[in-house]
Amino acid sequence: MRAFFCLLVGITLWSSLSGTLRAQPLTKETDARYQERLRAFAFPFEAVQLLDSPFKAAMQRDAAYLFSLDPDRLLSRFRRFAGLASKAPEYGGWESLGISGHTLGHYLSALSMYYAATRDSLAKTRIAYIVQALAEVQQAHGNGYVGAIPEGERLWSEIARGELWETKPFSLNGAWVPWYTLHKLFAGLLDAYWYAASQQALQIAIGLADWVYETTKNLTPAQWQQMLQTEHGGMNEVLAHLHGLTGNPRYRELSQKFYHATVLSPLARGVPNLTGLHANTQIPKVIGVVRQYELIGSDSLRAIAEFFWEEVVQHHTYVIGGNSQNEHFGPRDSLSRRLDERTAETCNTYNMLRLTRHLFALNPEKVRYVDYYERALYNHILASQEPHKGMFTYFVSLRPGHFKTYSTPEDAFWCCVGTGMENHVKYNEFIYFYNGDTLYVNLFIPSELTWKERALTVRLETAFPESNQVRLKFNPEMTQRLVVRVRHPSWAQGSLEVRLNGEVQQLASHPGSYLTLDRLWHPGDQLELTLPLRLHVETMPDNPDRFAILYGPIVLAGVFGNRGLPEGGAYARNQWDFFNWPAPSVPRLCGDLNRVETWVKPLATSGELRFHTVGAGQPADVLLKPFYEVHHERYTIYWDRCR
Fold first, then answer.
1. CB atoms within 10 A of CB 97
2. Could you tell me which residues come within 8 angstroms of residue 175 by beta carbon, excluding any fewer than 6 positions away?
């Protein structure tokens, strides 16, 4: 009965929103209302250049991996299933299975963002080659379709006839998450248009969307809801994007039809209903919902996104910023018994950061969004890339004494390989935001901003987190008034020491807010901040005697060497290959959690962040270092307290 009620509520909301959209053509007035809803705006990728740091190194490793891949192998099944001769054999792993084609969408997105950030001509050439190949595939199908899904013709013909004989969480009529796979392709095409100015990519996406419309036009609302029981990615998001680009009402209608009432309607009412759900099935739906809100302004859509974010971050998230065990949400605030090899799927955090970026743009005063973004970026995303081959984690094991498992270059292609391709080429996207004459400085990542509209460059120099010093150098072409807002993080418990051109400034701010300077800025002005970095602990919500140690926002891991690790490194075709490998017992820690600085001490090392426990470990003390630096060695993040 409850499920039926949710279905009715969802169908009603979908119908009312669709009606609202049909009455609201995309005009300059609509664009103005959209601008009003957003209170902070991202800079173009090319405006923010990374300077030397672990983030720039990660981007360079990722780019090297992207260029090592053969586009024709990623295109192999697209061509074969369109009746064209493949130019190279398909890759292994998931690209040889029923989800084939999903990687190409991520690959297009990653290349496009990398091109936007660097203007690398090789990336541009490769994007053009892939898009042209997809155009040939679409022409061969002759109906707008383009895809690499096995038995696609049979599957989509059944959908068009309303024959839904299997709608399991990961299988639709015997096909492995086909809408999810198409979502990745749509996203890649749109990113090729946005970031690499490929008009051809947009035209392919339009043709594919028209095919979606024709394929699904005869489904009833009940059939739609039945179909949406199968994971479908962010189809609502990409179709909303396409409506925003074209103004075509059929795309907004399609976007609203991808409203999964069973999950989204309770969230609209503020009902926490995540327990037992597959985590990363839900997050893209909510990203789509907030994108719909940006375009049409329904408060219920915004409520869904904000409530979902709070639920996930406050009640289902581990200290590294990741969530889920075995890909599923557990009971609220129940994390201490969910520490094993299957925790913290990396895809989930990729999507939570995307959702966070949308919500911050709507409410930049909510510094908690940025605090979460920073936590997850350093401790999960940066920590997920292997430093030698640039490979990616699927799960990030939180089992004490265990280790990270990485993809292989050519026979894995998990979902988290696809999102991993994107993760490490877009570290510049959240450092700075703006609104009018206000500049938000969110993250302390070495970078240089070129704000063309204001004829201004801002250079952010820091060795954070190894150093607590941050310097901002302003170089406007002419003196100008600017409101500069620098985040005072929640972890920075205490005052920020601020110097402007060497002189101490008495400025009010508090943890979880922005430090604001509204003044005339001159060429050569320098703003220097000293951040109060300190050691602290976070306990589990359901077990105060199980805790993690942090230095500012940086999660510290105890490390135990590489004894017993797989020879040659923990690279795997299957993400579960090393789940059952034995792990040693790890020490308990006996210190006062309210005075962690008395028993965790820094080591005198050159340029490295290293700590060790002193007289607190039973049976032995431990070495601690940032989790993002831990690779090919055993580690522990959560510790049990001695009693």
1. 12
2. 98, 149, 150, 151, 152, 155
pLDDT for the residue 297? 86
What pTM was estimated for this model as a whole? 0.94
Is the alpha carbon torsion for 98, 99, 105, 106 positive or negative?
A: negative
CA gap 521, 315 in Å, rounded: 43
Average pLDDT over residues 19-37: 43
What CA–CA distances, in Å, run from 290 to 200, 241, 283?
Answer: 27, 11, 11
**Distance in angstroms (rounded) separating the CA atoms of residues 411 and 419:** 16
pLDDT in tens, 122-147: 999 999 999 999 999 999 999 999 99
Read off the pLDDT of residues 605-630 as tens digits, 9 standing for 90 and up: 767 899 999 999 999 999 999 999 99
φ, ψ (nearest 5 deg) of residue 371:
-60, -45
The packing angle between helices 28-37 and 279-296, to 10°, is 120
Among 175-179, 233-237, 491-495, the range scoring the smallest mean pLDDT is 491-495
**Dist. CA 327–CA 337, nearest whole Å:** 15
Question: Which residue(s) pair with 537 in the sheet?
Answer: 549
Taking every pair of Cα atoms in the chain, the longest distance, rounded to a whole number of angstroms, is 73
Spatial separation of the C-alpha atoms in residues 634 and 168, rounded to whole Å: 37
In the chain, the domains with their CATH numbers are: 432-530 (2.60.40.1180), 535-640 (no CATH)
Asked if residues 471 and 480 have their Cβ atoms less than 8 Å apart, the reply is no
Q: How far apart are CA 571 and CA 393, in angstroms?
A: 9
Phi, psi at residue 445, to the nearest 5°? -110, 125
Residue 324 neighbours by CB under 8 Å, 6+ apart: 279, 280, 316, 330, 343, 344, 345, 348
The Cα 457–Cα 447 span in angstroms is 11
Torsional sign, CA 410, 414, 416, 422 = positive
Instruction: Give CA–CA dist 240/186, Å, rounded.
Output: 11
Non-local CB neighbours of 535 within 8 Å, separated by 6+ positions: 549, 550, 551, 596, 597, 600, 611
